[in-house]
């Protein structure tokens, strides 16, 4: 399942996508610790899979939550995306 | 040499007349539906206030702002980012970060000497990121925007605001009122919310001191206070922040004339 | 007292032909949204009763009221329902529910029941959020996104416009379709800007139906771009309150180039219905 967390508003599309089919195979979930802003967490979803998700409090302000890793110019590789061994995390912006 | 800068914003039009770096006259008027006639009126007022200068006595006219393309007779157009940086650094030569928040757009600019733009980030097309947000909340609280700003300074505690959208925030404010939350605390929550959004954008360009706050929102003491707390640094605010864009445009106009010469 | 143009009618219904006492499993679903709440009761997987009402300031109370109203006239009380699943914005606040499941999973499941196993893309336009869901033939979610940050594309956005134009919300759709020619849309990115544009159009002499047409068009476009993110796979269904707005639905279908499936059931109960279906499965599992 592709779980998209985030929103679209006048200023753009801001979604973090978790591919739960890849995510569920992971034991450690290093993405959680890799995020300096504490955006991600582990949940048990509706189909009883243990996967990572964007915390509820961040979903409506993800553009702002992720801003520290997304400078206006010279974008480095995103830490959460780099940490994921299953390439299950993606950012839309 | 006299130059003019026109800033056609979403809500208001500003016109500044400059002579060799000295402000001759400036005026602001609602943009309304008919930008053309509003601008004509503004010209008439400014020229009269400057002591009867004639339109053809102006060496160069530069326009900026969202509606700059609608300005008849502009010699050149510049972006709001460039105009804000130029104007702010003229007023505060030590400024290296310019935060410009208007009615519908907010921008953060990092600049070098003389307002040379190094990096910028813009928050656009979402009312929650600009002056429209505070206006809507002021209406919901049944006070004027200036009063809303002053009120927030009298807050006794921090109340979280969950809604990130102006429409939803209005409902949240109404709920808070029903729950007997003091208006001062709600007002501070409103200013903290928008300051948080703007600050996040400022951090994207990596701010450097001195930081200056310009644009219409900089008139709001509650917003200034919230920004200073969010950035954890003092900000410099000009006496008439809404004119900074037009001032910058007028300064750029002078540069253009010098380049031609 | 001023007329509240945005207030739509609340209702309840139950099947007078069905005897709930004869059912093996009575399952319930309660969908507490930020704007409206629905309760659905199923008897052995057959739709038995439901209600649709405005959510009050207290979520648990709204959940209880919705459930009791759905059960009104049936001779049943909440404890008679074997398994209740709570969902929606306030799903964790349904005190009498045995389990909470996300509104995403419930909407997919409910749409699968209402529109059949052919449905693959579900668009739910709720009161304060907009969801785009891909599901398989069993109603299991394959992909989703939910936008509850921004009012554009939500019922609340429509309410703002209905209020501005003093038009009852149930009439917005048909009024918007009564134009001779499609006007250009207003801002689709922000309700606040769209509202101020609409005010300008009114002052410029535009009649109400033309302004509404411009807004419905903007909303359809907005929602379309949301669907772009997860892709459109046929068949396609629309649930939620705005699904009843022909002005938005017809323009959306036009822009997508796809017709939405129709149902005789009330599309607004999809979430609660899905929850009730989950409830039945969970109850049977618990007895094994």
Question: Can you put this structure into words, describing what you see?
Answer:
The complex is a heterotrimer of chains A (93), B (261) and C (288). Chain A has helices at residues 20-23, 31-34, 56-59, 62-65, 79-83, and strands at 2-9, 12-19, 40-44, 50-54, 89-91. Chain A is an alpha+beta fold. Chain A has a single domain, classed as Alpha-Beta Plaits, CATH 3.30.70. Chain A has a three-stranded antiparallel β-sheet. Chain A is globular, with a radius of gyration of 13 Å. Chain B is α/β, with parallel strands linked by helices and 261 residues long. Chain B has two domains: 1-80 and 240-261, 2-Layer Sandwich (Nucleotidyltransferase, domain 5), CATH 3.30.420.40; 93-237, ATPase, nucleotide binding domain (Nucleotidyltransferase, domain 5), CATH 3.30.420. Chain B is built from eight helices and ten strands. Chain B has helices spanning 35-49, 80-91, 131-140, 145-152, 166-178, 183-205, 221-231, 244-260, and strands spanning 2-8, 12-19, 22-30, 60-64, 76-77, 97-101, 106-111, 117-123, 211-214, 235-236. In chain B, helix 7 links the parallel strand 9 (211-214) and strand 10 (235-236). In chain B, helix 3 (131-140) packs antiparallel against helix 6 and helix 6 (183-205) crosses helix 7. The longest helix of chain B has 23 residues, at 183-205. With 288 residues, chain C is an alpha/beta fold. Chain C has two domains: 11-110 and 268-287, Nucleotidyltransferase, domain 5, CATH 3.30.420.40; 119-260, Nucleotidyltransferase, domain 5 (2-Layer Sandwich). In chain C, 37% of the residues lie in helices and 20% in strands. Chain C is built from eight helices and ten strands. In chain C, the strands form two sheets. A six-stranded mixed β-sheet of chain C has the order 1-4-3-2-5-6. Strand 1 (2-9) of chain A pairs parallel with strand 9 (141-147) of chain C, so a sheet runs across the interface.
According to CATH, the fold-level topology of the largest domain in chain C is Nucleotidyltransferase, domain 5
CATH superfamily of the largest domain in chain B: ATPase, nucleotide binding domain
Amount of beta strand of chain C: 15-25%
- The unreliable regions of chain C are none
Proportion in helices of chain B: 40-55%
Q: Any guess at the CATH architecture of the largest domain in chain B?
A: 2-Layer Sandwich
